[in-house]
Amino acid sequence: EERVLKKIQRKIRNKRSAQESRKKKREYVHNLEGRMSACRAYNLKLQGRVQQLEETNNDLLEQLSRLQGLLPNTSGKTTHRGTCIMVLLLSFSLLISSNLQPDPYSQPSQEEYTQTK
C-alpha cells in the first residue's frame, strides 16, 4: 500500500512538473513571438528609412552632377597651383636646411677651437 501511495504521489509530481514545463514553454514562445513582431515592425521602419535616404542620395547626386556641369573645368589650374606651391616649399626647405648646417670646410674660430680642447 505504501508503494502504491508513493507511486501515485510521484505521478502527481510528474504531472504538475509537466504542466509547469508546458506553461513555461507557452510563455517563452509567446514572448519570442512578441519580440519577433517588434523586430519585424522595426525592420519595416528601417527599410522605409533606407529607401528615403537612397532617394535623397540620388537627388543630391543629380544636383551635384548638374552643378559640376555648370562649372568650367578648373582641374588643370588647381594641379598647376599645387605643383608651384610644392616647388616653392621644397626650395624654401633646401635653403633653410643649408643655412642650418655648418660649413665643413670653414676654419673654426679661436674661441671654438679652445672650447673643443
From TrEMBL:
What topology in the membrane does the UniProt record assign? Single-pass type II membrane protein
For this protein, the record's Gene3D superfamilies field holds: 1.20.5.170
Q: Which residues form a coiled coil?
A: 43-70
Region of interest (Disordered), ranges: 1-26
Question: Where is this protein localized, as stated in its record?
Answer: Endoplasmic reticulum membrane
Q: Which UniProt keywords are present, listed alphabetically?
A: Activator, Coiled coil, DNA-binding, Endoplasmic reticulum, Glycoprotein, Membrane, Nucleus, Signal-anchor, Transcription, Transcription regulation, Transmembrane, Transmembrane helix
Mind telling me which PROSITE patterns this protein's record contains?
BZIP, BZIP_BASIC
Cite the BZIP domain residue spans from the record.
4-67
MF terms from GO for this chain are: DNA-binding transcription factor activity, RNA polymerase II-specific; RNA polymerase II cis-regulatory region sequence-specific DNA binding
GO cellular component labels: endoplasmic reticulum membrane; nucleus
The answer to whether the entry has keyword Coiled coil is yes
Question: What family is this protein classified in?
Answer: Belongs to the bZIP family. ATF subfamily.
UniProt-recorded name of the protein: BZIP domain-containing protein
